[in-house]
Amino acid sequence: MEAVPGNGAAVTANGAVPALELHNVTCTFPARGNPGGTYTAVRDTTLTIADGEFVSIVGPTGCGKSTLLNVASGLLAPSSGRIEVAKEPLVGINRKAGYMFQADALMPWRTALENVVAGLEWNGVNKKEAEARGVEWLARVGLAGFEKTYPHHLSGGMRKRVALAQMLIMDPKIILMDEPFSALDVQTRQLMENELLELWQADRKSVLFITHDLEEAIALSDRVVALSAGPGTHPIGEFKIDLPRPRDVAEIRHLDAFNELHAQIWDVMKEEVLKGYAQQKRN
Length: 283
Known about the structure:
8 helices
């Protein structure tokens, strides 16, 4: 295990072009309840995601984790700083990224298969090819036989599998995930985490994963970035997760190295978590 400097600048292995870079990003918004005032959610944040790297961001509630993900996706333009995708400046939506939200974005009037292939259809793929690929992806996420099932007939975990297939069928180079499993029960959550790792291990996409759960971050990631409490959140520590792969997220939690990493990262985070909690109470 190894802590690396908290300035967000990761070294890319073998000189490969980084998949995603945020350089000195600041995001300032109008302050609620204070006409003319401003609130800086993120300040001077630099973060690099290497090609094929799985990086998780953890931090206090409301610290700006999702803001960074929205910047990386192109859904939000930063107030200052720049974003690069494979060393090219990001202009508009990040077309090389797939985004999985905390709440699934399935269309209730479409079947599981119709939801999975929606992106392909909108990109002009013919229906027969799209459906064949959709059936394959539903099987890959453990939902063979549920092609004609509507979302309201699926469990929470099954809907997450559909959402995962819906994103991955588009073959994004970068995967952005905003606490995708937080609403699931513990057992289903661990199943989904292992499912994600198995799919990631097969294709080695670059992943930027937002979570408030430090154990989840360590179990999944190659590197964990800890953020300060807001306002003006920024990285306060980065930690290389030097644990063996492939991983089972339930079993790996019992390793001494896992517990040592947890203690090391929590030691950096705990004061900021208390600050964030105090701010939430004041608000």
